[in-house]
């Protein structure tokens, strides 16, 4: 019998800033990823797979290199940086990783956490495909994890860049799969 690779789910930036209308990073259509992400999370919880909430958090009153390109955002304890609705980590198989750059791996302990749990594959979902999802998939690959992006569980306000990013991820780094296949990989 061939043993299946151990798989974890990474939910990227499921925070108010992107999903609450009126906040700076909200964009039309972003809500379409919510139900697919909920389905992936439910399946991960049922199977006991690790769920990592990778959320952007910056320190207030501390200079951050990112401010040279983007306005100040997602400060610790700020409303825009808080988890959206029912996406707060809960239960024994859920944890959080706080990131200060686009990738959930860069300057965090995510690779160490996954390695210690003997994870080989990561299912990646969240926002935005052409920025944080792509950077996370690329760094998952660079760290020796198979990145799998669920097409219905990510999107962007720049669809042409999202499509190009998904094509690159599928061609060079990992796989882009349907929600049904993503759920099966978490079973």
TrEMBL record:
EC number from the UniProt entry: 3.-.-.-
UniProt keyword terms in alphabetical order: Hydrolase
Hydrolase found in the keyword field: yes
GO MF annotation list: hydrolase activity
UniProt-listed Pfam families: Isochorismatase
Isochorismatase-like domain boundaries: 7-180
CDD domains documented for this protein: cysteine_hydrolases
InterPro entries, sorted: Isochorismatase-like_dom, Isochorismatase-like_hydrls, Isochorismatase-like_sf
Name recorded for this polypeptide: Isochorismatase family cysteine hydrolase
Organism expressing this protein natively: Rhizobium alvei
Lineage: Bacteria, Pseudomonadati, Pseudomonadota, Alphaproteobacteria, Hyphomicrobiales
């Amino acid at each position: 019998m061939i043993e299946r690779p151990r798989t974890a789910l990474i939910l990227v930036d499921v925070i108010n800033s992107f999903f609450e209308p009126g906040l700076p990073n909200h964009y039309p259509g972003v809500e379409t990823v919510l139900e697919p992400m909920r389905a992936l999370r439910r399946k991960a919880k049922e199977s006991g797979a690790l769920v990592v909430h990778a959320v952007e958090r910056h320190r207030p009153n501390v200079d951050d290199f990112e401010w040279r390109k983007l306005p100040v955002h997602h400060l610790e304890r700020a409303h825009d940086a808080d988890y959206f609705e029912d996406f707060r980590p809960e239960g024994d198989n859920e944890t959080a990783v706080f990131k200060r750059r686009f990738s959930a791996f860069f300057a965090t302990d995510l690779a160490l956490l996954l390695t210690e749990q003997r994870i080989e594959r990561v299912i990646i979902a969240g926002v935005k495909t052409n920025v944080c999802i792509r950077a996370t998939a690329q760094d998952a690959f660079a760290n020796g994890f198979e990145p799998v992006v669920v097409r219905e569980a990510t999107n962007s306000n720049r669809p042409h860049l999202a499509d190009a990013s998904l094509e690159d991820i599928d061609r060079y780094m990992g796989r882009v799969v349907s929600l049904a296949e993503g759920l099966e990989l978490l079973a």
